Amino acid sequence: MYWFIFGGNSNEHEVSISSAKTVFQAFNSEINKERYTVKTFYINKYGDWLDSHLSEKILIGRIENNKTNKQEIFNQKKINFLDGIEFQNIDVWFPLLHGFNGEDGSIHGLLRFTKKPLVGCGIIGSALGMDKILMKTIFSNLKLPQVNYLVFQNEDLNDKEVKNKIINEILKKLKFPVFVKPSNSGSSLGISKVKNESEILQALEKAWGIDQRILVEEGLEVREIECGIIGKSKLLSSEIGEVIYESDWYDYDSKYYSDNQITIPAEIDSKVTKEIKEIAIQSCKALNIFGFARVDFFLEKSSNKILLNEINTIPGFTKNSMFPMLWKASGLNIEQLVAKLVDISLDL
Ligand SMILES: Nc1ncnc2c1ncn2[C@@H]1O[C@H](COP(=O)(O)OP(=O)(O)O)[C@@H](O)[C@H]1O
Ligand SMILES: [Mg+2]
Hints:
The protein is of the alpha+beta class. It has twelve helices and 13 strands.
């Protein structure tokens, strides 16, 4: 039995449901359905776990996630998600939760107690992949190319003097525009592009609302390049893709509500492509990330310089997501890809 976990107490809840729908369909496709029996757990926005019967209804669209009757929620007072499933019936876990409480290693820690394999990496890789500050610190240590950035943590943003000090440091050390980001978030939530001094404070407060550890980066004119990774002892990279959007930057709405143009393979010279694939593997190894991941890069338009942006340890798996498209272009369609991810988790 293959157990999916989706939804989650995170600001990327809706994205997770879309990803889970796509993966669920792939497991139930003609070529996979004989081999895999899939059961699911849905975690609602409040962190309550639903039983597999109700969870599946959400996946096949019978009930809307927002309208789940509170009465129907399974065991609201405690997380006893293992009740009612026989341990021998678990072959592999497949957490498909984006963002905090899911992509950050917490679910990986919980599942470790079942001593069953899971699709994706472990606690460390997940936690590092979710935390932009720590991820960047490790990349800096390895001298991997990145944009200039500043970190603000352990600061009290309610204090006016502290705010002024932060603003002055940004003005002194970085060039506008800058991107202000919460260290822990995803899907561009909490991020602002700041064009001048007057916009800094609002951006800091927005990021602070999500995480009190904040990253401020120099914003460049860039192309956005992404590379898929799968594997365990040996990591493989996919073709690389480019996403082109109409908005000023790749914010939440342009990620999920607009038709972006995706080009795979990206039109980049072969030397740069090779280097991007190598850095993708090297950066995953550095953070102990395996199973599957999507490594995102910027390519500075003026210089064609490669800059490593971030690694997503549970990449979007919706119909329009880059990760399945990258693997399709690399010879694995979505049905083959999900089967491959299970094989990798089992070391096959
Ligand atoms: N330093 C930067 N220079 C140019 N664009 C940036 C920079 N940082 C972020 N962006 C824009 O913001 C988007 C989201 O930032 P990112 O750090 O990838 O956050 P998330 O984890 O939410 O995807 C990027 O895809 C890009 O469009
Ligand atoms: Mg990103």
